[in-house]
Amino acid sequence: MSEISLSLNMASALGSIVLSEEKLKTLIDRAKQWALLYGVQMRRADDPSNPATVDFAPMTLFPSLLPLAIYEEAKSLQIHFQTLMHRAAHDQTFLDKCFKNVIQVDEFTKKLWEIYQEVQKQGLAQPLSLGLFRNDFMMDTKKAKFGMNPFHEVPDGLELKQIEFNSIASSFGGLICGQQPVHRHTMAAAGVEVKDGQLPENRPARGLAAGLLKAWVHYNVKNAVILFLVSKVERNSQDQVWLECQIFEQNPAVHVVFATFQDLIQKGTLKEDKKLYLEDKEIAVIYFRHGYVPNHYTSQKDFDIRLTMELSRAIKCPSIHYQLVGCKKVQQELARPGILEHFIKDTSVVARIRATFAGQYSLDMDSEGNEAVEMAISSPGNFVLKPQREGGGNNLYGEEMKNYLIKIRNSEERQAYILMERIHPWQQKNHLLKLGVDPSLQNVVSEIGIYGVCLGSADEEIYNVQVGHLLRTKSSSDNEGGIVAGFATVDTPLIV
Ligand code: ADP
Ligand code: MG
Ligand code: MG
């Protein structure tokens, strides 16, 4: 028998069902095949440039539990978070304040900031920004009360706490579409009853594609294309293909082209009227799936072409200001008293958003920053140190964080980071299926992301919708998240 006798307070979707080793092995094998069939797949790490060698994406064998109230709150807050980020992105004074010190010490953020400033100086050729966002949360246990029933028991007082708001290249909205069917199969095969609505239908790719098409309609040129700005080699390319196919399903007349910075440098032209062309194709919408970390820019030429794109009439997803507003520094500044109220008038919405904020601290060279540094050094287990980076694997925790903070304690370098209260997420049990990793039942923690689409200008919000979710689950012993980064797996919520 597999070690399925779950310990106290370690709930799992399986409850008290017992699976033999043999049954488990068969089920894992089936699950991998279902995943491939339903499109939950990624290019292989050892052969990422070969489109013919995909494998199942890292995933959980079973869904993880998610309390209904948490699920509903995260979903219903999405449009309000998007309004908040949309308004913050168009508030130059606020952005100035956020980035003033960061750009003194963070070269990459400075480069993005210079693009932003140049665009502001020359004036926006395209007033609209498109956001395909994903807002990520964990279930914090700091105030939770654990009962005595180990199975299907959800502790009272779990709190929805925001991890971060992703405003560029928010991924997995494609291949997650196939995970719910995979989990329906695995639950049925394990003999676990799932009630109606417990494994909600989830197809973010549809809504994300609809967002790209909405922007295309606003651009209003019949033969113009949607350009996916990508890297040359991308393990997660299947996720992009999901969106390409969804665009085709919804409007086959709209063409999608994939291009790199290099392609645009060689074959792109910005015309007098600010129309951007790739060879003879006019570009209506640019969807950035690349360009969010320093090594995506191999030389100044890549930054120059990014600026050219930003200066064009094409609708950018995200525009440079939408990208900047997703920085951790902005999240920390939004958490200051009074700031939410500046952007959102409805006090009950403000209260609900604020309730999801963990403690966040600036590390500027002032008394507040000094106090934050000392606080983190004296209790390193309670904080996370975050730079202005994306994609997982960049944060510092525990002793490593402490030692680093001691090193940069009195240096301006610390302004590149923010300090965040550490969330202690609710632990469950699940099997993580990752290539080359033991799939035994283990303690896991989940992060729930909500996808949404926002389209608008400084004066107007044209479109603001929530379009689905992503559950990512990782071993409770890993600090970091990120699926491509190798830590997390795709998962679906079993609503309880
Ligand atoms: P990135 O943009 O690189 O994904 P995140 O802020 O999402 O940056 O951090 C990466 C991962 O680190 C998250 O997926 C989560 O697993 C973990 N993490 C981030 N912030 C916290 C926190 N405050 N407490 C606990 N874990 C965190
Ligand atoms: Mg991120
Ligand atoms: Mg993240």
Structure write-up:
The protein folds into two domains: 21-358 and 423-495, no CATH class; 360-422, Dna Ligase, domain 1, CATH 3.30.1490. It is globular. 36% of the residues lie in helices and 23% in strands. α1 packs antiparallel against α6 (179-189), α7 crosses α8 (237-250) and α15 packs antiparallel against α16. The protein contains 16 helices and 21 strands. Mean pLDDT is 94; it is low at 1-10. It has 496 residues and is of the alpha+beta class. Strands 3, 5, 6, 17, 18, 19 and 20 form a seven-stranded antiparallel β-sheet that branches. Strands 7, 8, 9, 10, 11 and 12 form a six-stranded mixed β-sheet that branches. Residues 224-325 form the Glutathione synthase substrate-binding domain. Pfam families: GSH_synth_ATP, GSH_synthase. InterPro entries: Glutathione_synthase, Glutathione_synthase_a-hlx, Glutathione_synthase_C_euk, Glutathione_synthase_N_euk, GSH-S_sub-bd_sf, GSH_synth_subst-bd, PreATP-grasp_dom_sf.
SSE order and pairing:
Blueprint: H1 21-38, E1 41-43, E2 54-56, E3 59-60, E4 64-66, H2 68-89, H3 92-99, H4 102-105, H5 107-122, E5 129-140, E6 159-166, H6 179-189, H7 204-219, E7 225-229, H8 237-250, E8 256-259, H9 261-267, E9 268-270, E10 276-278, E11 281-288, H10 300-311, E12 315-317, H11 320-325, H12 328-334, H13 339-343, H14 347-355, E13 360-362, H15 367-378, E14 383-387, E15 396-397, H16 398-408, E16 417-421, E17 427-433, E18 441-456, E19 461-475, E20 489-491, E21 493-495
Parallel strand pairs: 4-21, 7-8, 7-11, 11-12
Antiparallel strand pairs: 1-2, 3-17, 5-6, 5-18, 9-10, 10-11, 13-16, 14-15, 14-16, 17-18, 18-19, 19-20
Helix pairs in contact: 1-6, 5-10, 7-8, 9-10, 15-16
The protein binds adenosine-5'-diphosphate (ADP) and magnesium ion (2 copies).
Residues 136, 163-164, 358, 384, 386, 389-392, 394-395, 420, 422-423, 447, 480-482 line the site of adenosine-5'-diphosphate.
